[in-house]
Structure formats: C-alpha cells, structure tokens
Amino acid sequence: MPGPLQRLRLAAVNIDGVLLNDTFSPVIHHFIVSRGGKYTADVERRIFSQGQRIASRALATACGGGMSAEEALEAYFAERSDHLAHQPVALTGGAVELLRRLRELGLRTVCYGGLDRSHFDRHLGDLAGLFDEPGYVCTDAFRPGIREITTEVFGLAYDQVVFIDDVARVAEEARSLGAAFIGHPSSFEHGFQRELMRAAGVRHLVDSLDGIEASLLRAVDAEAEAGTVWRR
Fold it and tell me: Angle CA(190)–CA(114)–CA(43) in degrees, nearest 5?
C-alpha cells in the first residue's frame, strides 16, 4: 500500500464551480450580452475571482458603462436569483468522493469562495465533517486568497498546499507563489477558463471531480516535493 504524501499537507477546494455547480458563468454571460456588451476572455479575467467591488465595476464597464458598479451588482444578484429559481445550486458529481479521497490521503481540507459563509452552510453544511477548521474561508476581501489561506489561516508553506479551482486567475496566483494547482474549468459553452488555464501553464486539468484520483494527487505531491509543480 502506498505510503503517506511527502510534501502536501492541505487541499483548498473552491466552492462554486468545483464542489457546487457553476451558477455564475451563465448569469454573467447573459447579463453582459443582453445589454449589448461583448463577452470575451478579457472580460472573464476582469470579473472572475475578483472581490465584489472590483467585479461589479468590470461588469458595468463590460455592459457599456451605462450603470454604476453598485447598480450593476444589485442587478446581477437579482438576475442570479431568477436563474437559480430554474437552475438551482447543486452538489457537483463526485464532490463527496473527492473530499473523502483527500482525507484518506492525510490532507487537511478547507473550502473557500467569494460569498459569505452562509452560502457554504446552506449547501455544504451536511458535509462539514469532511472539512478541517475553519471549514470555509470567505475570500471576497482578499481574492484570490492563496496567500491568506496558506500562510495566515493554516501557517503553511506554499508548496504544501494544492488548490483546486475553476478560474485561471487563481492558477496564475498559485504559479507566482509556487503553490500546486489542479484546474476544473467550467464546461459553459461561452467560457474561456480552460484556454486561460492552459495559457497560464496549468499542467493538471480535469473535466470531472472523478478525474482527481489518488494517483493524480500523489503525482502532484511528488512534484511539490521535487519543486517542479510548475516546471515540466
């Protein structure tokens, strides 16, 4: 039986788009194009995994600047609420199995995202036992949050953590700091995250959470131990 992991100590898993279905991309896309804006990779880069104040300004700009950031944010959440009435938040297939796999490998596990903790409690509260304290970290005030989660919340070195996320901006930050990263880009047909992750040099991309097998996690751990997480 394989031994314990050599370097990794923590798995930080994004909530929306990884453990929960992607309920942001479709709404943001419709919000922009329905107002005559163009939805591009640069628009995604400016909005995704940004704090709400920054994202709302970018959202207003993408729509042509006809509304303030505050108006854009209020209108966006109203449209998201309407969207969720027809396509509700749901647990992603393989999420529970992934969390169990992470713990079986000896990794501490935490969830993070831009919405407040009530979002985590509402949709993942029943799985709280599969996470380590604090369970969930709201990163709205310091997105993407890699530095804060790694050094301030858990007191670890960057190469001791693997981040699992659906947004390339998080991958870019992970690369700059030397943290491991596994990408789970959205399958949304108008999205650009897969190509942005490839451009960022992400080595490990999965189409489903079932793809994050123990063998992949051990491979990432070996790269972290060798200092080659971002080097081929």
Answer: 35
* Confidence (pLDDT) at 162: 98
Same domain, 98 and 61: no
C-alpha span between 232 and 222 (Å, rounded): 13
Query: For the segment 192-210, what is each residue's pLDDT rounded down to a tens digit?
Result: 999 999 999 999 999 999 9
Which of 38, 62, 86 is at the close of a domain?
A: 86
Sheet with 136-138: list strands edge to edge.
Answer: 136-138, 108-113, 10-14, 161-165, 180-183
Write out the two tokens for 51: 């704090």
**Range(s) of the domain holding residue 200:** 10-22+90-226
- For 171, residues 6+ apart whose C-beta sits below 8 A from its C-beta are 165, 181, 183, 197, 200, 201, 202
